[in-house]
Amino acid sequence: MNSDAELITLGAKLERLKGVLARKDAEIQALNSRLQKDKERESEIDDERKAMIYMLEDINETTSKLEKAKKEWESTFDAISDPIFIHDKQFKIVRANRAYIEATGIMPDEMIGKLYYEVFPKMDSPFKMCSKVLELQEEEEVHLPYLNKIFKVRFYPIRDVEGKFLYSVHIMEDITEAKRMLERLRQEMEITANLLTIAEITSHTIDINKLMEQVMQYGSKTVGCDVCLSYLWNKEMKIFQPDHCHGLPSGLIPVFHTQSLDEQTEFVKRAIEEKKPVVISTAELKGEELRTEVPQSRVFSWLPDFNTAVLIPLIGKEGCLGFVVAIFKNHREFAEKDMRVISGISNQVSIALEQARLYKESVDKTMELSHKTETIQVMHEIDRGILSTLDTQEILETISSMVTRLIPAEGVTVVLIDRERSGFVYKAGFGVKLAKGAFVPFRDTSATEVIQTGKPQFTSDFASEKDLLPLERALLDEGYHSHIRVPLTVEGEIVGLFNVGSKKVGAFVFEHLAVLERLAAQTSVALKNARLVTELKDMFLGTANALSSAIDAKSPWTAGHSKRVTKYALDMGKEMGLHAKDLKDLEIAGLLHDIGKLGTYQSILDKSYKLTEKETKVLRLHPAKGAEILSPIKQMREIIPAIRHHHEFYNGGGYPDGLKGEEIPLMARILGVADSVDAMSADRPYRKGKSKAAVVEELKRCSGTQFDPKVVEAFLKVIQKNSK
Asked: Which of 430, 432, 493, 597 is the most buried (most CB within 10 A)?
């Protein structure tokens, strides 16, 4: 028993020892595994140590290189001759090179941290490029007046790895000399181009006016003046007369045209004698009378705010042809090169001007003869033109449109006198701002002198006259200077004025006045004829009205009938587009359409009940009788058909000839509708007149049978318009 128990106990112990041994074995294995890992970690640490040693060696080498690169960069940075600086987000200086430091005159320690635009360049605000954060390089030109320099500033943003803005680098390149050189080159090129243009102009232009106009334009560009003036020699007046200008304010142009140059003026004499340009200053013109009878203070005194002028003579073979005057507002010094350019212009223009003058003189002599011949031809044409019409307005329009073929004028007006309103009425012409039909009171114009004296009025320059009246002041404001006015006389009475105007001073000569007087005489004859014809027409129309009244007076029931018919007929005629002459014929036909009733028994006209067949036949004779009464009057030949056929029906059922459709004269068809409208509307002894609506309905019903549909349509349109 004991031995079994012991065995069991020993077995249990043995099992426990096995478990302990197993655990110990596991611990040994774990320790072995950890030992192995420690050995591996030790190897890794050793590798890392070696790597760290290598890295430290690389860092030391890189640091050494960086220090060397930094020194090299700083040397390069300072060696750059253009000012360079770096600023932060607040525009404060972080770094600057030697050139920038020297430009500021401030020690580096003192400028660091200060706003760069207060240090250099001295400005009120940063560069424009600094106001925005840019991705790319940008440039900006900065002019520093206090240094008289121009810099081209380049901008380079510096950012961190995340792209956030840190600093700005600015390089300031001094481009002053380059700019000046470019400007000088540009000026030289411009001068050369203008000189070539002037050479081209002077070699191809033979028109003096065009020549001087272009010389003014390109000459002013070449010499760089503010104002350029030209004066040409006037042989008759013996003065240098104002010609063209360029750059002159518009308000001074009229003044310029009144200011001539006198050959006795000291610097004018000097330029002519020396035959070369003369430079004059305001000091010479204000108070210095250089032993001459002409005070210098008068010359160019009308031109304010100028400092220097160059008088450039234009010399021809027979003397001085004129001057070109270059005006400078600021003081100007002239180098030898400048004077050579000016002298070159003078020579070119002088040769061209002399050639143009010689050409003009030869052309003038040729034209003088041809002009006299042409004047006769044009006067004949004008005669035919104004005598071919008896309409006053047509006469005035014709002669005003043709006058420029004989007289060099920019403005022509014909005015008639309105004595009831005490003034002039503008009837025809061109070139002025007045509208046709405008009224000008006598008190507003000096033209009344022509009426008072009966003589022409000749003005060489409005600007030279004092106390201009409103009309003449308005003409001067429009640019007109020269003016001629001649009276238009009919039967000894001045009825109007013929006026021509020019924007040139002294544009007209005695020959022009003589031509205009002849034209005025021709116009007066035409106006007299027109007046006589008008009076005859008025008398004829008055006679027609008297006959009309006599016709309508035959019966109290027809009083005013002819005038009403005439009004209806004229309204329809206008609606159908009849010409003025046709309307006049229609008016007379309307007034006389019932003249045949003068031979009709009054008892028939006043009858209060339906007419008998015999009475109707008698009444229907009046269209033919009317035509018969008027047939001896040749002026009625175009009107008689309208009177004879105004009772014809469109379908042929009318009288006296049974005409139909287009066979019936148009005026007769119009009178037929007008006569029927009034007959239906008026009261008669045997019935009351119809209403407008009933008349319209009847016209529509009979359209195409009794009446011409087109005429009915015209009447309906007239009714519609009158009802609005």
From this structure: 597
